[in-house]
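Throughout our pipeline, every protein is held as a single compact record rather than as scattered files. Nothing more is needed to write down the fold, since each code stands for a local backbone conformation. For reference, a complete record is included directly beneath this paragraph.
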Amino acid sequence: MEGFSLRLVICVVSGLLLLSQPTLGIRFVIDREECFTHSVQYEGDTVHASFVVIKYDTPWHYSDDGVDLVVNDPHGAQIHDFRNKISEKFEFISQKKGLYRFCFTNKSPYHETIDFDVHVKHFSYFDEHAKDEHFAPLLEQIGKLEEALYNIQFEQHWLEAQTDRQALVNEGMSRRAIHKALFESAALIGASVLQVYLLRRLFERKLGTSRV
């Protein structure tokens, strides 16, 4: 019974180690092109990735122009090719182990800040004990739990990046609206002053004419 409990603990701990699989989560500024590599150690692993264009380097610029992303496998074969995307989530099954390459291209004249997240999911211990009928149900439940926890973390990171982008967009729109209102007010005041000046000149000319 003691041996069974020990093996049970080992199974649970090994299952929880899934959360420590290689993860890349960064926020960077891109000028023209930036490339990153991520190591996948086993064939058949599931690679999850996402990116969000958070902001541009100027508060006066806002558009739906996105970035391009090309994903290549360790042998250089293209896996994904996204064009002009502000945000994207995707996944793929690794056919080869090694370094996978993610290259972003910015075609706009402005620097852009991008939030990029990559995670590799692998059930190494589960594979080794898949034939153990006593542990199969437990491992299956652990696998489902770990997958659910990871999906929550992945979605949370994605939503946080989307929220940051929307907050910056709203802030930029509010700033532009305030500046527009100030400019319109200044233009209105200037037009009123000019109108008063012209009216005074007109009255002065009429008075001069009537005196003659």
Q: What stands out?
A: Residues 1-6, 15-20 have pLDDT under 50 and may be disordered. The helical segments are 2-16, 124-128, 136-211. Residues 27-172 form a domain with the Jelly Rolls fold (CATH 2.60.120.680).
